[in-house]
UniProtKB/TrEMBL annotation:
InterPro entries xref list: ATP_synth_I
Residue stretches spanning the membrane: 6-23, 35-57, 63-83
Species this chain originates from: Pseudomonas flexibilis
Protein name: ATP synthase subunit I
Major localization class: membrane
């Protein structure tokens, strides 16, 4: 489970660093490009990390790997739902 969670965490950290480098109305084009690059890099990094784990870790329990991955993704999604339902003034 830990490896699946780390894959999700590392890929999302990469996306956050790549996507949120620019801000402000004058850099709208750079913002869109950085989000695109961040998402593509995140997908590639996720695939590469899964491939690495499947090749390098023996014995591997795929169910535990994917459960950890989905739990980390679900945590972020549920945090967004909690913030939506409980906004600060």
């Amino acid at each position: 489970m830990l490896l699946g969670g780390l894959i999700a965490l590392l890929a999302n950290v990469y996306f956050a660093f790549k996507a949120f480098r620019y801000f402000g109305a004058r850099s709208a084009r750079a913002i869109v490009q950085s989000f695109w690059a961040g998402e593509m890099g995140k997908l590639i990094l996720t695939a590469a990390l899964f491939a690495l784990v499947f090749v390098a870790v023996k014995p591997l329990q795929p169910l535990a790997l994917f459960t950890g991955y989905l739990l980390v993704l679900g945590t972020g999604a549920s945090a967004l739902l909690l913030l939506k339902n409980n906004p600060k003034h």
